[in-house]
Prior knowledge:
Layout: E1 2-4, H1 11-23, H2 27-41, E2 46-48, E3 54-55, H3 57-64, H4 68-77, E4 83-85, E5 88-92, H5 93-131
Antiparallel strand pairs: 1-2, 3-5, 4-5
Amino acid sequence: MRTIETTNIPVEHLEALEHFACAEVGPELRDVLMSVARCIRDGEGLVTVDGHATLTPNQVAERLGMSRSHLYKLLDRGEIVSHRVGRDRRIRLSDVIAFEAERDHDRRELAERFAKQHETRSGAIDEIADLL
């Protein structure tokens, strides 16, 4: 993991990066560049991480905001891939990121279902009323 200092980047360079991101590249790279620009504007440092880096269960539990015992249950069920180093477990960062993305997708989907629940219920009531 490496932290890149961003406080000395001139505003003109930042504006040029944003202009390039909006005008010259595809949507995937634009999102990356705009996220970088936003971090720089907010005065945050940038951290680069090797996607093949491995983390301890303690680090993963902290990152995911859960207890280690809950994380071990997920590891035992295979919901997060891990491998053993001696008697200890290690989890690849890329597997943690994939789990986070899947969890976020599932949460959004559940929220959408709850949001549409009223519409579905109203539609069912209307259909039943039409049948009577």
